[in-house]
Amino acid sequence: MAVAFKILGTGAGPGIPSYYCDCISCNEARENPCLARTRSGAVVNTGKETVLIDASADMRAQLVREDIRHVDVVFISHWHYDHFGGLGDLEYYVRLYRKEKIKLFLPPDALEEFEAAYPFLLDVFDIALWQFGEKYTFGECDLIPLPANHSRQTAGFVLEAKQRLAYFTDTAGLPEETAARIRGIDYLICDATFYKDNWYPHSHQSVAQAIQLGQDLNAQSTILTHMAMHYSEPVTVAQLTEQLQAYSSAVLAYDGMVITL
C-alpha cells in the first residue's frame, strides 16, 4: 500500500478565520468554509500505522473531519502551544478504546515541560525523545527529524518512501546540513507564515521567502503552509492563488490535502 501524507491543518497560531478578526482573509473563510485553516499538523498513513506529526489545539476537530479513528504514534516538532495543545484529546481514546499507551516522541528539550503541563497523561503515553538524524521506520516509510531554524529546539520531518517529502512548518530558512539532506526533494511543505513583511525573521518565513527556499533547494514542488494570512497585510486565497501562477512549482496547502508517496 502507498504511504499517504495528509495535511490536517495549514494555519499559523491564530487560525483562519480568527474569532476576533474581521479582515478580508477571515471573512473569505467565513463565506467559504473550505478555505478555513486550522492549526498546523499532519498525519501519515502507512497502511499499518497512523502517525501524527504534531497535535494542534484543533486536533480533535481535524480527526473527526478526516474520519481518523486510530492513532498509533505521535511526533511533536517543538514545544509551542499551537503544535502540542491537542495532546489531551487523546486521553479518552486511550482510556476508553485503545487500552494501550500511544508512543509519543517529544523534543529533547520539552520533557520537563510536558510532565509539568500534563501529569495526568503520564499513563496515556509511552514517552521517548526524538533525535535529529535518527531514522524511524513505519511500514515502508522512514521518518527522519532534521533541524529547523526556530525560536527553540525544533524539528522538521523528512519522509522517505517511493518519493521524498520534507515537512517544515516553523523555520526561517534551513540550516545548511538540513538543506544538504533535502536538495532536489519531491515535495517541500514549508513555513509561509507571513504575507509581505516578516515580523519574526529568525523564526518564520514570508510567502516570498518560502518560494525562494523551494527554488534554492530545487524542490520539485513547494507547498506553502503554516499561513497566518492576516499579517503583515491580509490576503485572500484568491489573491494568493493568482500571484502563485507566476511560479510553476509553488502552490498553497489546504486542510485535508493528501500527497501519496
Count helical runs: 8
Strand content: 15-25%
Q: What global shape is seen? A: globular
Nearest-angstrom radius of gyration?
Answer: 17 Å
User: What order do the strands of the largest sheet run in, or round the barrel if closed?
Assistant: 6-5-4-3-2-1-14
Counting DSSP E segments of at least 2 residues, the number of strands comes to 14
What's the structural domain tally?
Answer: 1
Q: List segments where confidence is low: pLDDT < 50 over at least 5 consecutive residues.
A: none
**According to CATH, what is the class?**
Alpha Beta
In round numbers, the mean pLDDT is: 97
Helix content: 10-25%
Please outline the helices and strands.
Layout: E1 4-9, H1 24-31, E2 41-45, E3 50-53, H2 59-65, E4 73-75, H3 81-84, H4 91-98, E5 102-106, H5 111-117, E6 125-129, E7 136-138, E8 141-147, E9 155-160, E10 164-168, H6 176-182, E11 187-191, H7 207-216, E12 221-225, H8 237-244, E13 250-252, E14 258-260
Parallel strand pairs: 3-4, 4-5, 5-6, 10-11, 11-12, 12-13
Antiparallel strand pairs: 1-2, 1-14, 2-3, 7-8, 8-9, 9-10
Describe the model.
The chain is an alpha/beta fold and 261 residues long. The protein has one domain (4-260): 4-Layer Sandwich (Metallo-beta-lactamase, Chain A), CATH 3.60.15. It contains 8 helices and 14 strands. Strand 2 (41-45) and strand 3 (50-53) form a beta hairpin. The radius of gyration is 17 Å and the shape is globular.
Descriptive labels:
261 residues; alpha/beta; Metallo-beta-lactamase, Chain A; 7-stranded mixed β-sheet; 8 helices
